[in-house]
Amino acid sequence: MRSRFGWLAALLTLAAVFAIGAAPDARAEAGKPLNLAFVLLSEPALPSGEAIARAYARFAPKTEHLRVKGTTSKGKMSVLELDLSPHGTAFVALMPVPVPQGEADEAARYSLSAIGTGWKLGPHKAHLMVTFHGAGGDGALAALNRFTSLVAAVTQSAPAVGVYWGEAGATHDPKYVVATAAEPGIVPRITLWTGVSMARDGASRLSLLSLGMKQLGLPELLLTAPKGDAGRAFETFFDLLAYVAERGKALPDGDTVGRSESERLPVHYVASPIKPGERVWRVDLE
Asked: Which of 240, 236, 202 minimizes the C-alpha distance to 218?
């Protein structure tokens, strides 16, 4: 599953922001890396910048701060501009309509928050489009971590019923987003950055496929495991994704991975089961 709407929406957001008078320095960010998420709302309400800034302090390192630059409105659309200097500029745009074509609803089944608890996305009447233009220099992982703190802060400050992380292919429970972003380390947060496509692998095995690692410039992981060992499969799955995310580059074909010094699981690259022409790294649990 891959977002149909997300990048088009991001482009429309940028066009709208610039049309209603974004600052010149914000325009300069347009060519730099873009992170994008949609906070789904029970009612159309743009949270105050001050509330987001206070919440951001809960999720970000103590050395980082968020400054409110202002809000601009045109018709039913309002855009809040936030400064995360020296790391970049963020926008929170209120869209007084649901995400089109039921895309966010469809993506809920790929979230660990739904797989693990049975959470279901309720109806949403509007959404906040959250974009962050990283200033570069500290890498994709740092930018994605910073963006996660921002999304959690917006979610905590709004009447959120879900968070659609388009490039993860997943819609998360907002309570799960806030709680997960407050945890230290990469492993909790990576469960927000990628959705999970779960399927059968023959009669006695299951497979887990990640959906969001392209945000870090990394290949997706396909992990298979005995059908009765789902708990260990999910733990290993996210541990391996976090390991590669922190490593910053793909593992070579034929390498081995494991959760202990004695475990040696071979890595092999195979064709993606859902995306023609794409290669994924496969690991098989015994």
From this structure: 240
